[in-house]
Amino acid sequence: MELNLMVAGFGGQGVMMVGKLLSQATCDSTDYNVTFFPSYGAQQRGGTANCYVVISDHEVGSPKPNIVDQLIVMNDVSMVKFRTNVKSGGIIFTNSSLVKSGAERDDVTVVPIPVTEMAMELGSLKVLNIVMLGAYIGYTQLIDENLVLDCILRLLGKKPEFIELNKKAFSMGLEAGKKAKAA
Amino acid sequence: MSNKVFMKGCEAIAEAAVRAGCRFYAGYPITPQNEIPEYMARRQPQVGGVFVQGESEIASINMVYGAGAGGTRSMTSSSSVGISLKSEGISYCAGAKVPMVYVNMQRGGPGVGTIQAAQQDYFQATKASGNGGFKMIVLAPSTVQEAVDMTYQAFDLAERDRSPVLILGDGVIGTIMEPVVLPEMKSDEEVAAMKAANREWAIVGHSRDEKRGFLDPGYWSTDMQEAHCIELDAMYRSWEENDVQVEELSLDDAELVFVAYGTSARIARSAIELLRADGLKVGMIRPKTLSPFPVKSFDKINYQLCKCILDIEMSIPAQMLFDVRLAVKERCAVDTCLRSGGNLIERDDIIRKAREILNGGAE
After folding, report:
1. Where along chain B do the CATH 3.40.50.970 domains lie?
2. Distant-in-sequence, close-in-space partners of B153: CB < 8 Å, separation ≥ 6
3. CA A113 to CA A92: how far, in whole Å?
4. CB pair distance less than 8 Å for A37 and B172
5. Which of residues 92-111 of A touch B (CB under 8 A)?
6. Which residues of chain A neighbour B171 with C-beta distances below 8 Å?
7. Using CB atoms and an 8 Å cut-off, which of residues 104-133 of chain B contact chain A?
8. Which domain does A160 fall in, by range?
9. How far apart (Å, rounded) are the C-alpha atoms in residues B219 and A42?
């Protein structure tokens, strides 16, 4: 078993946190090897940011695979840039509030989730990444949702005012992901 | 699962150093190793240690030179171009026999280069980390766990030999997060005992009736300097016998043998799994110590079967290649698979090259 995931979007959308939470939860709850690799460089708010998560029952080879099984894109630029890096049969999760371009290929599944709008509905754009994480878990069932939520609360629970918001964001995402899977 | 934690390479190295008894760290920021000083800034005060952000790399290495001379387990870190600045101080430590550990999280070069992962400091690390022809034990981790274990061990080696030890990582090892099991924390008593044991040679302010400490980075007499070089050389030779660390993978039936270290090695290993699954007989020599280089491992290759040795490194031009050639002794063809400048080797590059060699013969 080996799963490669790339998360990409604008700096400031919490792209790194999605990868970090997912890999942290994997480390905490499974015996799989897992790596989290942030692209680093001139990342800034409004610029592009991306990270890679590799989960494997073998030792992880490259933590930055050139071709991935799954891609999460938070903005249109990332969709255009990375849609060709997905394996045939792979999945692209898009923030459909901002991603207007299509995959332009028919051998991948596109799962559109309007996370920017959903986060606005909750009253804070800050949690759009948590909505997306919820949607990803809801769709893939990669890790037990409760374990991921524990992890969110542990890593992001230092500010009590955000606990409820993060909980809501996660469960809203979960529902959307499950619904997309069932559809 | 159990007691593993999910940590970034740099932070895990810093924590391992603290647990090994490191109580002095000085450094100057540079990507991709900033998380080491950042972590040390927070951690050293908690354990009664000292953290200094020097005004430069040169100041930092000289502070480590001083702290190490006082018998405290000391450390610095930087990346490629920053390591170049430290080279005078590193040579002083080697010359004066001051133990210390330093980390180089390599990035693209030459010059200021790029901030992404590369392996372009191999020669600098293994051949000339400063003037005077000294050597060091150079440890090359390929996972965060190994980086932790090697850092923990590095302080023991440095103290045993009274010599600098280098952890040679790269931007990937420094910035990835992986599950890791941390080594045991040495107690305050153990740390104090280790320092006390260094009193014999360290400059700690001896009383009048005690033998005084002298640490000389040089001698007034050429004969004394030569004798010092001969003594160091004997130590370097002993490393070749006793301190080689290497991982050997399927050498007995290999028709193609990869040689790779650090990040390149973990990617090469993942290529081997796929190639072997296709019936291609590929093995690997992974130096864990680049100095001393695992020369003897190359005698275990079956040269009746082996068509080619493939040197895989993130450096153009290739550097480790020359140590590989010396070890192969022309018993077999040697080819390369290289990336550079901050671009990672890709598993597919290695697979393609391996197929080319095994199906079409080496160059």
Report:
1. 5-198
2. B20, B139
3. 11
4. yes
5. none
6. 40
7. 115-116
8. 2-182
9. 48
For residue B32, give the nearest of A36, A40, A59 by CB distance: A40
DSSP single-letter state for residue B20: T
Task: Per residue of chain B (363 residues), give pLDDT as tens.
Answer: 468 999 999 999 999 999 999 999 999 999 999 999 999 999 999 999 999 999 999 999 999 999 999 999 999 999 999 999 999 999 999 999 999 999 999 999 999 999 999 999 999 999 999 999 999 999 999 999 999 999 999 999 999 999 999 999 999 999 999 999 999 999 999 999 999 999 999 999 888 888 888 899 999 999 999 999 999 999 999 999 999 999 999 999 999 999 999 999 999 999 999 999 999 999 999 999 999 999 999 999 999 999 999 999 999 999 999 999 999 999 999 999 999 999 999 999 999 999 999 987 444
Task: Domain count for chain A, please give it.
Answer: 1
What CATH number does residue A15 fall under?
A: 3.40.920.10
| Look-up of token digits 């354990």 | B47
Q: Which of B47, B61, B52 is nearest to B94 (CA)?
A: B61
Q: Which of B270, B286, B345 to mutate to test the interface with A (most CBs of A within 10 A)?
A: B270
Residue type, B124: Q
Alpha helices by DSSP H, listed for B278-346, are 320-328
- What is the Cα Rg of chain A in Å? 15
Tokens 């903005």 belong to A75
Task: Compute φ and ψ for B24, nearest 5 degrees.
Answer: -145, 125
Chain B residues with CB-CB distance to A28 below 8 A: 1, 6
Q: Does A31 touch chain B (CB under 8 A)?
A: yes
* Number of inter-chain CB pairs under 8 A, A vs B: 69
Does A36 lie at the interface with B, CB-CB under 8 angstroms?
Answer: yes
* ipTM associated with this complex: 0.94
Q: Does A24 touch chain B (CB under 8 A)?
A: yes
**CATH class name, domain B247-360:** alpha beta
Q: What are the b/e assignments for A37-72, b being 16+ CB within 10 Å?
A: bbbbeebeeeebbbbbbbbbeeebbbbbbeebbbbb
Query: Whose CA is closest to B290, among B238, B240, B340, B233?
Result: B240
Give the right CATH number for B5-198 from 3.90.950.20, 3.30.360.10, 1.10.287.70, 3.40.50.970. 3.40.50.970
For residue B347, which residues of chain A lie inside 8 Å, CB to CB?
Answer: 61-62, 65
